[in-house]
Amino acid sequence: MNASNTSFFGDLLGTIAERGRALLDMGRDKKPAGAVRAATMVASCEQLLSGKGEASGVALAREILQSYARLKTGERIAFFEALHDVFGPDRDRLDKAIAAYGAKPGDRTAGELHAASEPRRQELFRRFNLAPGGTANLVAMRGHLLDILGRRTDLVAVDRDFTHLFTSWFNRGFLVLRRIDWSTPASVLEKIIRYEAVHAIRDWNDLRARVDSPDRRCYAFFHPALVDEPLIFVEVALMKDAPGAIAPILEEGRTPLDPAKAGVAVFYSISNCQPGLGGVSFGNFLIKQVLEEISRELPNLKTFVTLSPVPGFRAWIEGERRNEASVALTAADREALAALDAPGLEMDADRQAQLAPVLSALAAHFFLIGRTAKGRPLDPVARFHLGNGARLERINPFGDLSPKGIKQAAGLMVNYRYVPEEIEANHEAFFDKGQVVASPAVRKLLRAGTQQRALVAN
């Protein structure tokens, strides 16, 4: 669906909503000025589910979403509580469906059981989605829910229903890949600056260097219901060799490389743009489609790698330093790691040389042995790329000497490599066996005895 069709569809829904509002106002007193509180919204939601005509239903859906947008944090929580407590499955209908299926199993009773088990809030969300801008409002609503979910785990069921619907609504078949360049509308370019989450874009000149240089590319996924709102984007550098540091890629005033002389495509930044779509995975499709797209454009590219941050590595190191029984650290490691404590590491070549072999060995342990309580790699970026079929190719101590890089990962970065003919096998090895596929160079960094000590400790 192109932008003009999407705009027409949005205008049409807006017209329906305005006519529906008039019908609603004829049948009830107008609400007093001011925000509509969560309790009143529950009654409106029941009214929406009761099945009014299309025009009035669209108008009511828009009114509820507008009211939600005016709620304060506490009122939003009350609304989410109502979604959980009031708009779950219809218990009476579900009990009857269970009994009917138990008495006479079959397609008809199974269908009724399936329908009865669906929480009412799922249909409520579908009706919200009919309002103009409904999809964007629901994505924002889920973003608010995710903000409080850490301290309100009782609302997980509501989030599960959001995720269930979003997985269908944001299916890969609905997503459109667009290249971002200097001719892209300014409204989109502004969002690229705002949403860049890995390496901050300093200004418009920096943005232009990233999207308009002959040896740079930027691609984003868009959805027809979210006009000019990128969902996720990736920045690509065309280079002669796989890089071990981010500074040369981001360097101001660098001389661009002729794309015909490039042999490597480097995915150096991947940013999710919509917090409300967290956990709805389409990043893997983005990487694979960009790889195909850029290969068609530049068949001379033979190697596809990332230059990736390791955001939790420094915190893991500090945790091991506090742990007197750590199996990852030797006494010599502890002594060497004291060099991390003084400021100015980014300017001190001697300290970097002292730390590099220690950090490399610890990174090998972190990636190859370290696991979460659920048995998955500790690093979320590793889980993303390994799950997409990449392999851990190279560890780069002091690949990022920015304040953020030092704080998050003691300066460490890594390369993941995508080899098209190996992607499927690597993906299966990761998900079926929990195997971290890594190059021999990375595996050689793992010190003798480390794995055995870890097994004994566990």
pLDDT averaged residue by residue: 89
CATH topology of the largest domain: Butyryl-CoA Dehydrogenase, subunit A, domain 3
Distance between the termini: 54 Å
Q: Uncertain segments of ≥5 residues (pLDDT<50)? A: 1-10, 12-36, 452-458
Total count of helical runs of at least 4 residues: 21
What is the 3D shape? globular
How many distinct beta strands? 8
The level 1 CATH classification of the largest domain is: Mainly Alpha
Q: Tell me the number of structural domains.
A: 3
Helix content: 40-55%
Radius of gyration: 26 Å
Q: Beta-sheet strand percentage? A: 5-15%
Task: Give, in order, the helices and strands.
Answer: HHHHHHHHHEHHEEHEHEEHHHHEHEHHH
CATH superfamily of the largest domain: Malonyl-CoA decarboxylase, oligemerization domain
**Strand ordering within the main sheet:** 1-2-3-4-5
Structural class of the secondary elements? alpha+beta
